[in-house]
Design goal:
GO molecular function: bitter taste receptor activity; G protein-coupled receptor activity
Number of helices: 9
CATH class: Mainly Alpha
CATH topology: Rhopdopsin 7-helix transmembrane proteins
CATH architecture: Up-down Bundle
Keywords: G-protein coupled receptor, Membrane, Receptor, Sensory transduction, Taste, Transducer, Transmembrane, Transmembrane helix
Number of domains: 1
Largest sheet: none
Strand content: under 5%
Transmembrane segments: 12-41, 53-76, 96-114, 134-154, 183-211, 239-262, 268-290
CATH superfamily: Rhodopsin 7-helix transmembrane proteins
Membrane topology: Multi-pass membrane protein
Number of strands: 0
InterPro entries: TAS2R
Order of helices and strands: HHHHHHHHH
């Protein structure tokens, strides 16, 4: 029918765009991981900044990979997602890598803020001295929180699957999918709390770094010499502000996703998925151009 043809065309267009974004994002994040790994092999050590970039690249690579496979199967072979525990595993692993990526990125913003900002507060000075020891614990905490989200997502998907097992006969998958979506709202709520906390961390990091930059610039007005600290402030500020803007848009997408999650084929849902697939690649590209070593390596291999 004409309606079926339109749905098929829409799905094909969505898969094509998401495939391009996913593979581009995977290449960008694989580049970050490979450069850092080769650098660590040569120097036999990793600094805190490289540790965070490494886990950010790994989590985003696997998030894009799993998300693309899930989207591809949902269009090409949707029946396979209702075979236990395929759907549960996809939802769980996708949630784990999605939120670990966001929390790792928030850790990167906090690291930049503490490392570069200048304040006379004794607690802030203590954090600046101990930040290299704190970073592994921040990363471990991010992994544990993301693991909790993944477990909750698995249990929610499993409960939804069990409650809809009798309604997934031939021709009734879309109806079952609508029924299943309502079970995901509790996990959306719990994950939203964690997302809001990481968003607040990014916001406070941006504000503190901006205030530090303003304070430092005011103190250096009488100095005409080039100030390296000012350059470091500006580079970190660009990175954090770019992530803050993208984080804000992603937060809006999360809210809209909870509203339009049951509306298959909605243009709003299509735009949300487009941005969610573009976010890991675009922000990682910003991180590359904000890191002299990664930028130099990229410009060297592109020709």
């Amino acid at each position: 029918s004409q309606e079926q043809f339109n749905i098929t065309t829409y799905d094909a267009m969505a898969v094509a765009i998401m495939t391009f974004e996913a593979f581009a994002g995977m290449w960008i994040n694989a580049f970050i991981v490979s450069v850092i790994c080769m650098s660590s092999v040569k120097r036999k050590t990793l600094n805190s900044n490289e540790k965070i970039l490494l886990v950010v690249g790994c989590s985003r690579f696997w998030y894009l990979c799993i998300s693309w496979v899930y989207s591809f199967l949902s269009v090409i072979y949707p029946h396979s997602l209702y075979v236990h525990p395929t759907l549960q595993l996809f939802v769980s692993t996708q949630s784990f890598f999605s939120y670990s990526s966001l929390w790792f990125s928030a850790c990167l913003c906090v690291f930049y803020c503490i490392k570069i900002a200048n304040f006379g507060n004794s607690f802030f000075i203590y954090l600046k001295v101990k930040i290299d020891r704190i970073v592994p614990w921040l990363l471990l905490g991010s992994v544990l929180f993301s693991l909790v989200i993944g477990i909750i997502a698995y249990e929610t998907a499993d409960q939804a699957h069990c409650n809809n097992r009798n309604s997934t006969g031939r021709g009734s998958f879309w109806k079952a999918n609508i029924k299943m979506d309502k079970y995901f709202f509790p996990s959306f709520f719990i994950a939203g709390i964690g997302y809001a906390v990481s968003f607040m961390a990014v916001t406070f990091s941006a504000l503190l770094l901006l205030f530090s930059l303003w304070k430092h610039k005011r103190n250096m007005q009488t100095n005409s010499m080039k100030d390296l600290s000012m350059d470091a402030h500006i580079k970190a500020m660009k990175c954090i502000l770019s992530f803050f803007i993208m984080y804000s848009i992603n937060f809006a997408c999360l809210v809209l996703e909870m509203v339009y999650v049951t509306k298959k084929g909605s243009p709003v849902m299509f735009l949300i998925l487009i941005f969610q697939y573009a976010f890991p690649g675009v922000h990682s590209l910003i991180l590359i151009f904000g890191n002299p070593k990664l930028e130099k390596t990229l410009l060297r291999i592109l020709p």
